[in-house]
Design goal:
Elements lengths: L3 E6 L6 H13 L5 E5 L5 H11 L8 H25 L3 E5 L2 H11 L4 H11 L7 E6 L2 H8 L12 H17 L4 E5 L4 H10 L6
Parallel strand pairs: 1-3, 1-4, 2-3, 4-5
Helix pairs in contact: 1-8, 2-3, 3-5, 4-5, 4-7
The protein binds thymidine-5'-diphosphate.
The site of thymidine-5'-diphosphate has 17 residues, from helix 1 and helix 4.
């Protein structure tokens, strides 16, 4: 594959969506085709799964059901959009991918790590990001920001859950320093974008 697969990660409210847009503009300005995606979602099927996952009415969803729905949404997005985009040489910028499942379903929920890794292999169809940027922000700040307009089903898990999510991301970055880079997400948004671009220079 000639394309470059980049993922953005972080706990809720870390500013990922804003940064995904700014980063996509910056990469596009370099003349690359940029395909911007977010998980869960990005295909008709995946968006339907997203609605199931985030609906606060589904408070009784079993953790195993949750895990498999995230993976199902991912498999469809990978086969339908990500693989073809990489094959034609695009930069694919995805807001969340399988590291979210590691951080939220293993870290946050406490599902067995080895099981989650196996599930991630299936859901991603074996397609791995070349670089993963973790936006790191004080979880209390992020959580307040994310829930100011109401909480979805995941956000309703509370601040302690977000703290476990952050800890899982930091463990991942320590274990895979080549791929996973932690970037300070505090401060002015253009400064954060510049920090992210530094971590991509060698790939572009
Ligand atoms: P979203 O509103 O897109 O949140 P954000 O803007 O913070 O990315 O909702 C996605 C939610 O789903 C978010 O709380 C993280 C969670 N999630 C998982 O728990 N596991 C996963 O594998 C993925 C992709 C997301």
């Amino acid at each position: 594959m000639r394309g470059v697969f980049i993922t953005l990660e972080g706990a809720d409210g870390c500013g990922k969506s804003t940064q995904a847009a700014l980063l996509a503009d910056a990469l596009g300005a370099r003349g690359r085709e940029v395909v911007r995606l977010r998980e869960p979602g990005g295909t008709q099927i995946s968006e339907k799964i997203r609605a199931l996952l985030l609906d606060p009415a589904n408070a009784d969803m079993a953790p195993e059901c949750e895990l498999l729905l995230y993976e199902a949404s991912r498999a469809q997005l990978t086969r339908q959009v990500i693989e073809p985009a990489l094959a034609r040489g695009a930069v694919v910028l995805c807001d969340r991918y399988y590291d979210s499942t590691y951080a939220y379903q293993a870290g946050g929920r406490g599902l067995d790590e080895a099981l989650v890794r196996r599930a991630n292999l299936l859901g991603s169809c074996g397609v791995a990001p070349a670089r993963t940027l973790v936006l790191d922000l004080d979880p209390a700040l992020g959580y307040a920001r994310a829930t100011s307009g109401g909480a979805d089903r995941m956000e309703a898990e509370g601040l302690a859950f977000q703290e476990r999510v952050r800890a899982a991301y930091l463990r991942l970055a320590a274990a895979e320093p080549d791929r996973v880079r932690v970037v300070d997400a505090s401060g002015e948004k253009n400064e954060v974008t510049a920090r992210l671009l530094v971590e991509l220079e060698d790939l572009l």
